[in-house]
Amino acid sequence: MLYGLVAARVDLKNYGGRVGDIRPENVFIDNSGKVKIVNILTSPNETNAFTKAKDNHNPDLNVILAPEDLADLLKNSIDNKANNQSEIFAIGATVLSAGLLDNFRGVYNYKKLQFLSDELNLRKDHWSEHSKYSEIFKSIILNLVDENPSKRITGDELYKFISKYESAIKAKEQFIITHPPENL
Question: Which CATH number fits the domain that encloses residue 134?
Answer without folding.
Answer: 1.10.510.10
